[in-house]
Amino acid sequence: MHELSIAMSILEMAEEESAKHGHAQVEAVHVRLGAFSGVTKEALVGAFEVAREGTELKGCRLEIEEVPVVIFCRRCQAEREVMEGREMRCGVCGELSRDLRKGREMEITAMEIET
Hints:
With 115 residues, the chain is α+β, with helices and mostly antiparallel strands. Helices cover 27% and strands 30% of the residues. It has helices at residues 2-20, 41-52; strands spanning 26-34, 61-67, 70-73, 78-81, 100-102, 106-113. The protein has a three-stranded mixed sheet with strand order 2-1-6. A three-stranded antiparallel sheet has the order 4-3-5, with no helix packed on it. Strand 3 and strand 4 (78-81) form a beta hairpin. Helix 1 (2-20) crosses helix 2 (41-52). It is elongated, with a radius of gyration of 17 Å.
């Protein structure tokens, strides 16, 4: 379960940020998580809850923004979300594309810190 090591890394970064602010309480960590990131939301949330227990961040929330898969469609000449399922087809015209533009993200975008 690589989600546990990811959750531990997120908490490590939050602890570092807390230390920069005089050990202020980190209320929440905001993460963007792409559908093709290789990380499942439910597993990451569960791992985060386990990893934060017994730490200074035991009350910290993990806020996840799910990022859909977006491709560039040559037929439409635009970025489009893919159709339902795992095939990389334009959600508007159905054209198959290999030009992935969004959906692999796994990044911390913000932290809420009580000062």
